[in-house]
Design goal:
9 helices; 255 residues; elongated
Length: 255
């Protein structure tokens, strides 16, 4: 059992909080009993599992080596205030856009320029609940392997297909796949509820500060808005994604 907070593995786990180190090693940390179990079930390439029995940690069924760690070093490695004693180091996910195919009536969520890991994670969680076929993360300001994305998604990062691409790559792929692009923007004339969201469709949501890029807006088949009756001029990005996705779900269930 690792007992020292200065153990090399503890230091490596702390360094993996940094995007530069994640990119250099091609690995990232998955923390939490549920999240690690979902990653294992999804076939994620787990390199090692770390458990802390004093914190109630138990290893999932996996062929990866399991390392035990005392409470103090585990808390040093953890990003959580109340860790449950389970984390894993895994290889980066395959997020190449060309690795994914859609059903004929595929539902895609495109999120562009999202900066906050919590927002991106929440969008993935909502996408899982709505049965989205693919989430395309376009020009992200944060990476999908950020530990706070993993945490906010509650493991949905491993249950929903995710691709990362530039907005030009995303638009080219949508056109080639014959997926209609619907862009959300407060300035649109058409309301979300009046727009057909059945069939193969991609719903695009931009960052809270800047919205969707002009390139994304110009490429859309239609622009829609979520009606707002208060004084605030924008919804939280993850809330907007939830609203538009569930309107699509509603229409598809009744079509």
């Amino acid at each position: 059992m690792i007992t020292s907070t200065s153990n090399p593995l503890v230091k490596e786990l702390v360094r993996l909080r940094e995007r530069r180190h994640r990119d250099a090693t091609g690995t990232f940390v998955i923390e939490g009993r549920r999240e690690v179990s979902l990653a294992v079930a999804a076939g994620v390439d787990i390199q090692r599992v770390v458990v802390s029995p004093p914190l109630g940690g138990e290893a999932p069924i996996t062929e990866a080596p399991v390392i035990e760690m005392a409470e103090a070093p585990f808390r040093r490695a953890s990003i959580r205030q109340n860790p449950d004693g389970v984390l894993a180091v895994a290889r980066h996910l395959d997020t190449a856009l060309g690795s994914h195919t859609l059903p004929p009536d595929g539902l895609v969520l495109v999120v562009e320029g999202i900066e906050k890991p919590g927002n991106l994670g929440a969008m993935l969680r909502t996408a899982d609940a709505a049965g989205v076929d693919l989430v395309v993360v376009a020009d992200p300001a944060t990476d999908v392997h950020n530990p706070n994305v993993v945490r906010a998604s509650q493991g949905a990062l491993f249950t929903v297909p995710v691709a990362v691409a530039s907005h030009d790559e995303a638009l080219g792929w949508l056109e080639a796949s014959q997926v209609r692009l619907v862009a959300t923007t407060p300035d649109a004339a058409s309301e979300l509820w009046a727009t057909d969201l059945t069939g193969a469709v991609a719903l695009a949501v931009g960052a809270e500060a800047t919205g969707l890029s002009q390139r994304m807006l110009d490429a859309a088949a239609i622009r829609v808005r979520v009606p707002m009756y208060g004084r605030v001029d924008s919804l939280n990005a993850s809330v907007t994604a939830g609203i538009v996705l569930y309107e699509a779900v509603r229409q598809r269930r009744h079509s």
